[in-house]
Amino acid sequence: MPHLTLLRQIGVCGQIIPWNFPLLMWAWKIGPAIATGNTVVIKTAEQTPLSALVAATCIKEAGFPPGVNNILSGYGRPCGEAIAKHMDIRKISFTGSAQAGRA
User: Fold this and answer.
1) Alpha-carbon span 86 to 88, nearest angstrom
2) Is there a contact between 38 and 68 (Cβ–Cβ < 8 Å)?
3) Residue 44 above 90 pLDDT?
4) What gap in Å lies between CA 99 and CA 23, rounded to an integer?
5) Residue 31: what are its φ and ψ, rounded to 5°?
6) CA dihedral angle for residue 75, residue 76, residue 81, residue 83, rounded to 10 degrees
7) Structure confidence by residue, pLDDT tens digits, 4-23
8) Which run of H or of E encompasses 59?
């Protein structure tokens, strides 16, 4: 079976991470996206927003341009829905339970 891989930027990637392993999930999500030339809007779990916020300061100190890594902290439904429905976000990555995804 032939396979096709396209190497191109997507643009803005919306990423939603769960409460467990917040820093590791943050790194797993943003690493590939930023390495391939995309920008990220990442929604942290409302229980664990500080890991991503502290890690974002490291990105800023490393000299990344403003707007490459964007953190959205807040309650699941309104923030997740805002990412999922935004017309400029071309890719969504969600890690969590099926129940949370349906909400």
Assistant:
1) 6
2) no
3) yes
4) 22
5) -55, -60
6) 90
7) 777 788 999 999 999 988 89
8) helix 50-61
